Amino acid sequence: MTVGIIGHYKCSEHDMGDHHPENGKRLSAISDQLIRSGLDYVVRQFDSKPIDKKLLSLAHTTEYIDFVLNNAPKEGDDKFVVGPDSVMNEKSLTSILYSAGAAVDAVDLVMDNTLTSAFCTTRPPGHHAEHDKGMGFCFFNNVAIAAAYAKQQYGLKRVAIVDFDVHHGNGTEDIIRNHFKATPEDDKGYLFCSSYEYPLFPFEVTESDIPPIINTPLPATTKGEQFREKLTAHWLPALHKFKPELILISAGFDAHIEDEMSQVSLTEADFRWITDEVKKIATEYSQGRIISVLEGGYAPSALGRSVVAHINGLIGN
Ligand SMILES: [Zn+2]
């Protein structure tokens, strides 16, 4: 069991303005807690590379990719608004390319058996980025690109994405439906499970228990017990039926009780629980292969502690 952490200091440099919750201090908080926990000696650490821009088209339209790449601010330029709550400064494009690159590098490291599982400690996040637009702090959908890359490069037939960020992974659902063209009749080898507080951004979500989309809304009053009950009832049967060859996690930790981005009240123990459950599925069907990609989590201390719990789950400590 070899677990790796993949990231790059350039992911810290993207900046959406003073006091914006999605900032580079999030990665420092994770790094601090990894050192404090001693995990930095246990896991293998890798610097990511910027993504080959051609791979962006695995999940996005050429028009949208060109829109982002051609308008990215250069030194001294004003900020550029890509979409609602997704703003680029002169450093953003580099962070964006390293963030997506980490997810692709993780696929290579896991598929060539260098690692059993990997955590990408990167930003900006990606799960709100749709096939033709960015929004909600996201530009390109790191996890969807990685899922498509795993199928294209390694011939995998079935890839599952599970998303426990407190916001719905609307971008990932959109890409699976509208870019991968998956339907209930032909899932195209994808399964997407998303739990999220509802109502909450991005609001327009339909509950679903029909693959390839399992949408599991959580009321604002949700605590760990209800979270575990809902995911046990809705996610686990779908994952067992799907038998994934690789599991990707959109790992958002903004459902933590200390995180003011939501009302849902989870703790580190709940993130450990869902990690353990995903790992059991991965052990049964996918040779233990899990690639986890950071999404939200905006209370720095809670974020760092939750990531430690998550990585301990991946390791099996
Ligand atoms: Zn979120």
What features would you describe in this structure?
The protein has 317 residues and is α/β, with parallel strands linked by helices. The protein has one domain: Arginase, Chain A, CATH 3.40.800.20. The protein contains eight helices and eleven strands. The chain has helices at residues 25-37, 62-71, 92-111, 142-154, 170-179, 224-242, 268-285, 300-315, and strands spanning 3-7, 44-47, 80-83, 86-88, 117-120, 159-163, 190-197, 208-210, 213-218, 246-251, 290-294. The strands form two sheets. It has a nine-stranded mixed beta sheet with strand order 2-1-5-11-10-6-7-9-8, with helices on both faces. It has a two-stranded antiparallel sheet with strand order 3-4. Helix 7 (268-285) links the parallel strand 10 and strand 11. It starts with a strand and ends with a helix. Zinc ion binds at residues 165-167, 252, 254, 295-296.
Q: What small molecules are bound in this structure?
A: zinc ion
- The CATH fourth-level homologous superfamily: Histone deacetylase domain
| CATH architectural category | 3-Layer(aba) Sandwich
Query: Largest sheet, order of strands side by side?
Result: 2-1-5-11-10-6-7-9-8
Order of helices and strands: EHEHEEHEHEHEEEHEHEH
Tally of alpha and pi helices: 8
Secondary structural class: alpha/beta
Beta-strand content = 15-25%
Quick summary of this structure?
This protein is α/β, with parallel strands linked by helices and 317 residues long. It is built from eight helices and eleven strands. A hairpin with a 2-residue loop joins strand 8 (208-210) and strand 9 (213-218).
